[in-house]
Every structure is written in C-alpha cells, then in structure tokens.
Amino acid sequence: TPSTTATFDNEAFYYISQTRKRYVAFDNPHIIDQHVLAVYFGADGRVTQIANYGLKDGKIFDFISRTTPTGGKDQN
Asked: Does the predicted TM-score (pTM) go above 0.70?
C-alpha cells in the first residue's frame, strides 16, 4: 500500500520512508534521512516511470499529512 497517492486520478503512488531523531527530549523530532519511491502510471494504468528521491532532492511535492498509529508507547 502506498504512503500517499497523487491528488487526482491516482496517476502516481509514493512510498515514503523517513528516519527521524529527537536531539532534545522536549524538542520535535527532525528528519535526518528520507527516501521516496515514486511510481508513475499512464492513462492505461501501466507503469511509465519509477523514480527515487531523497533529502538532497528537496521538497518533491505537497501531500496531506497523515499519521499511522503504531503499537509502541504513546508519547503525549
């Protein structure tokens, strides 16, 4: 299942992996590594392109931020 999809027509699937680190206990975590696998589809539903992006590529796209709960300790 992709992490997110294109806003219109599901023309692309994005699989996102991040590594975050919290430098100070009360600080928000910072992204230290990110990989995005983008799979692009043509009008016929076939894959037309596959691309890999990382932090060095900058902000690739805007997506609706969603979080998935995990089975770990809830940090409130």
From this structure: no
